[in-house]
UniProtKB/TrEMBL annotation:
Active-site residue list: H371 (proton acceptor)
Residues the entry annotates as binding acetyl-CoA: A388, N394, Y395, S413, A431, R448
Limits of the MobA-like NTP transferase domain: 9-139
Native species: Streptomyces pactum
Region Pyrophosphorylase, residue ranges: 1-238
NCBIfam families in alphabetical order: glmU, PRK14352.1
Name listed for the protein in its UniProt record: Bifunctional protein GlmU
Length: 482
């Protein structure tokens, strides 16, 4: 490991990415829970380099702010004008004091599928072969837009990289392409970058020219062919972004399935790289799992659910639910059609039913909120039942207040709990109550208007109406029977 530990990794992230047609810089576009450059930095981090430098330029305030958030250890180097990949690397090296002893790995910020494993293999080959430069290449079905790897006809040695725009007809037929990932000898790289010219179709300093320069100076130039060409795909437009997202998602789901997760429909299941699973989880179609979401053993999620930063306990069931920053206890059930908002904590075997919204609330073991309710800013004890269509009235128009409901309570349907208020253990509340005062343990609270029946009102006030006739028929029948 230490033998291949690079002195530096330079990540190129200064380009605008015009082909994205976006106000967002290309390297900040997202797939599977990370930005393009975030994925590249994660792979680069696996090399454990002594220095990690990102070259920023276009929209550099945005990119730098993002880097500070996702990778605080990364240094940034500024490339004021995007004069090409060679120029960008020169700026990266300048931030490190000019030249570096040891291996310098260069990666592009727009190749998010690259793995740490592939980078390690490249660095190992580079060191083992004693190369001045080793380029990561791949055979691709469609090489359009990529730099082509030109090899010597007899020895097969790499002689140059020719950009698509500068390539001849016969060179364009080459399917082995430059991934944009290189390992260099740090001193030789700095020397060669000083010799790169701009006499090409784009008038830029091409990093790829370093290869030919080093070779002509008699240094060893090597290539390492990636096993899977999809890994080195560069993202230049949104079609490629969607393809890469699909590829990465498949990779993540395959890993989960091989670890014992049932994914009923991989085509409609989307996960972030940060999502984790235990064995015997089942994920139903149309489910999106984001952020730090974790599904414990035997949990079942979906269909049609979106869970972000949510922990689902063992054997829990979550159906047609949107959840954000919530904890679902073991064997709890949620949905269909529930919305768990931040700070929801459901105990073991708790139940959140249909058309129920919860927020900043702890709901104890075995407690049920089965139908059509809003529970906000509340603590509910164990084995309590909250009646249908209840609202925890937490907001007085200025601030939020807390409601506490004890254990083993039975609250009636259509209750309003006007916070701050406390319902004691074992208490009952009557249907239709507006609870504004604390309810002592074990009592029944009734807080609603008394019912008053005004007999004969319809016959007097709505004579001849269908209602009056219906009522009259009942009294006639009662008369004959009696
Ligand atoms: C580059 C390579 C090409 C390779 C391809 C792989 C060169 C000249 N070409 O082409 O051989 O097949 O990547 O995907 O190296 N960047 C800067 N500053 C610049 C220019 C670019 O930081 O002045 C960064 C971009 O942000 C991007 C990366 O370098 O992350 C590659 O730039 P891009 O313009 O996408 O190069 P390609 O044309 O794809
Ligand atoms: Ca590119």
């Amino acid at each position: 490991m230490s033998a291949i530990r690079p002195a530096a990794v330079v990540v190129l992230a200064a380009g605008e990415g015009t082909r994205m047609k976006s106000a967002t810089p290309k390297v900040l576009h997202e797939l599977c829970g990370r930005s393009l450059v975030g994925h590249v930095l994660a792979a680069a981090g696996e090399l454990d380099p002594e220095n990690l430098v990102a070259v920023v330029g276009h929209a550099r305030e945005k990119v730098t702010a993002h880097l500070a958030e996702v990778a605080p250890d990364v240094r940034t180097a500024v490339q004021e004008q995007q004069n090409g990949t060679g120029h960008a690397v020169r700026m990266g090296l300048e931030a490190l004091g000019g030249a570096v002893d040891g291996t310098v790995v260069v990666v592009c910020g727009d190749t998010p599928l690259l793995t740490g494993e592939t980078l390690r293999a490249l660095a190992a080959t580079h060191t083992a072969d004693g190369n001045a430069v080793t380029v990561l290449t791949a055979e691709v079905p469609d090489a359009t837009g990529y730099g082509r790897i030109v090899r010597d006809g007899s020895s097969g040695a790499v002689t140059a990289i020719v950009e698509h725009k500068d390539a001849s007809e016969s060179q364009r037929a080459i399917r082995e392409i430059n991934s944009g990932v290189f390992a260099f000898d740090g001193q030789l790289l700095a020397d060669a970058l000083g010799k790169v010219r701009t006499d090409n179709s784009q008038g830029e300093e091409y990093l790829t020219d370093v290869l030919g320069i080093l070779r002509e100076a008699g240094h060893r130039v090597g290539a390492s062919v990636a096993g899977d060409h999809r890994e080195i795909a560069g993202i230049n437009n949104r079609v490629q972004l969607a393809e890469a997202r699909r590829t990465l998602n498949d990779r993540l789901l395959t890993r989960a399935m091989l670890a014992g997760v049932t994914v009923v429909d991989p085509a409609t299941t989307w996960v972030d790289v940060t999502v984790t699973f235990e064995q015997d989880v089942v994920v139903h179609p149309g489910t999106q799992l984001h952020g730090s979401t974790h599904l414990a053993e035997g949990a079942e999620v979906g269909p049609n659910s979106r869970l972000t930063d949510t922990r689902v306990g063992a054997g829990a069931r979550v159906d047609n639910t949107v959840s954000l920053d919530a904890v679902v206890g073991p064997e709890a059930t949620v949905g269909p059609y529930a919305y768990l908002r931040p700070g929801t904590r459901l105990g073991t075997k708790a139940k959140i039913g249909t058309y129920v919204e919860t927020k900043n609330s702890s709901i104890g073991e075995g407690t049920k909120v089965p139908h059509l309710s809003y529970v906000g800013d509340a603590t509910i004890g164990e084995y309590t039942n909250i009646g249908a269509a209840s609202v925890f009235v937490n907001y007085d128009g200025e601030s939020k207040h807390h409601t506490t409901v004890g254990s083993h309570c039975k609250t009636g349907s259509d209750n309003m709990f006007v916070a701050p208020v406390t319902v004691g253990d074992g208490a009952y509340t009557a249907a239709g109550s507006v609870i504004t005062k604390d309810v002592p343990p074990g009592s029944l609270a009734v807080a609603r208007g008394q019912q008053r029946n005004i007999e004969g009102w319809v016959a007097r006030k709505r004579p001849g109406s269908a209602a009056a006739k219906a009522a009259e028929a009942v009294s006639r029948e009662a008369g004959t029977e009696g």
